[in-house]
Amino acid sequence: MAIKAIKTGLLIAPFILVINHDFYSISRVKDASFFPILNKYLETSTSFIEDDYVLVKILGDNYKPKSIKDKLVRVITPDYRRVYRKVECIEGEWCPSPGGFVFVQSGHAWVSGSDTPSHAVPLATIEGTVEAIVWPLDRVQIIQNPIIDLTNPK
């Protein structure tokens, strides 16, 4: 019986790895990159069990930048951390900022987060869109459009 289970596991494992790498990924949210939507209980979170885990839909090589506008995305920072931001504007658009309006250059997106001011990031650093919170179980929910006003969560 155990040998049959091992054989079945070895047959299924490559498919799970491909799905996890190329289509969907479950990712841990370790910091306040989009508080209070992610890591709502950040001040009491001390371990990996208390952190949020999200389902991220990996973007293909030929995705349309307009498809990520107003969505919560996972971004790779220059020091290779994964952070979560909301895409406010995409290339070729004027975006409001504290100092007036900013024109978003080609190949970039204007993102906002709760722990950093709004800024431009290259589209190549955007890995995927956050589809749902999958852990902890009391916070499981589908993310359709993040809360726009981070200071007044609903």
From TrEMBL:
GO terms for cellular component: mitochondrial inner membrane peptidase complex
InterPro entries on file: IMP2
Gene Ontology BP, a term: signal peptide processing
One Gene Ontology molecular-function label: serine-type peptidase activity
PANTHER family reported in the protein's UniProt record: MITOCHONDRIAL INNER MEMBRANE PROTEASE SUBUNIT 2
Name of the molecule in the record: Mitochondrial inner membrane protease subunit 2
Organism: Stentor coeruleus
Species lineage: Eukaryota, Sar, Alveolata, Ciliophora, Postciliodesmatophora
